[in-house]
Amino acid sequence: MKRIGILTSGGDAPGMNAAIRAAVRTALYYDMEIIGIEKGYEGLIEGSFKGMDLASVGDILHRGGTILKTARSERFKTEEGQRIAVSNLEKCGIEGLVVCGGDGSYRGALDLAKRGVKVMGIPGTIDNDMGYTDYTIGYDTAVNTVLNAISMIRDTNSSHERTTIIEVMGRECGDIGLYAGLTGGADAILIPELPLDIDELASKLMEGMKRGKNHSIIIKAEGVDISVEELRKQLLERTNLDIRTVVLAYLQRGGAPTARDRMLATLTANRAVCLLRDDYESQAVGMSRGEVFEMPLDEAVQIKREADLYLIPLIDMLSK
Ligand code: ADP
Ligand code: F6P
Q1: CB within 10 Å: which end of the chain, N or C, has fewer?
Q2: For the CA of 142, the nearest ligand
Q3: SS3 8
């Protein structure tokens, strides 16, 4: 291929810039032109294209967000939107595309592939909700952001003898909650992959109180079907604890990417461009047991993420 494109789509994730940098510099290294498409699939429809050179990706490796911007595009889900997108790619002579995004973006990529565009997906989302890869770009940074928040809340919890419910992102996936909760010493972790039992949670907190534990952290993933305020109310009805709530929200989507996220972004973007160079059919690039790999895009989107539920007993064993 002589001219390829790259876009970022869905929720932004720390490390997307590292991926853009690696893709652009790999393409230029192999004498391919690379076009940046702004605002994800929306920019594909609007024809918001710009040529990328070596300098255009200078000084972005360490920055959160995405210099190409991102969007959620309803128009792209329609026949008409996709037809315009493909026609714009053809008009611009773009022979293949790198799409950095989450599972929704991959479904969009698959639609493009069905219309004859060669698309390489690289996993960009803080949620870690993609089944075919061990990790997604941005997840490690988000977990570390949550960990920092837990540490800070722990300080004030301990001074005031309080319990705090911290809500974390992740859509229907509990990974951010599970990993940040276990490594941050949370007393309870509520994730959508497990049933919610408020009576059991209240008893656990009260048992802790009886043992002399006078402050606690509860991590609740956003995919658990109860608001932090409702959960607080229901716990207040069952305990005599002083309970506060914190919703971390978009804090988790920003910040400098960790080394792990930069590495994942760099390796997967580099591989994606090499696959386009070699004219592969559409693939999803991921990381498994520390190794970068690719598999057909249509197969990758079928794989459902399984939560690491073997970690749950450890939380009960270790949080005392
Ligand atoms: P993420 O990629 O982070 O999961 P979204 O689910 O919002 O984020 O998806 C990003 C974009 O991908 C959507 O705005 C839409 O343009 C496109 N997309 C999502 N789902 C589909 C689908 N089923 N078919 C075609 N395009 C889709
Ligand atoms: O997919 C990333 C994510 O941050 C989810 O964790 C969250 O549910 C969602 O995006 C929020 O989306 P928006 O930016 O559209 O509010």
Answers
A1: C
A2: 2
A3: strand
pLDDT at residue 316 in the model: 84
- Whose Cα sits closest to atom 20 in ligand 1? 104
Q: What was the pLDDT predicted at 55?
A: 98
* pLDDT level of residue 319 (50, 70, 90 thresholds): confident
Centre a 10 Å sphere on the Cβ of residue 240 and count the other Cβ atoms it contains. Answer: 7
Q: Supply angle C-alpha 237, 241, 247, rounded to 5.
A: 90
Atom of ligand 2 nearest to the CA of 222: 8
**Polymer length of the chain:** 320
Nearest residue (by CA) to ligand 1, atom 25, is 108
Q: Is 199 a catalytic residue?
A: no
**Which ligand is in closest contact with the Cα of 247?**
2
Q: Catalytic residue, from 127, 140, 175, 261: name it.
A: 127
291-306 pLDDT, tens per residue?
Answer: 999 999 999 999 999 9
Instruction: Spell out the domains of the chain, with CATH numbers in brackets.
Output: 3-138+257-300 (3.40.50.450), 140-254 (3.40.50.460)
Nearest to 5 by CA among 85, 83, 72: 85
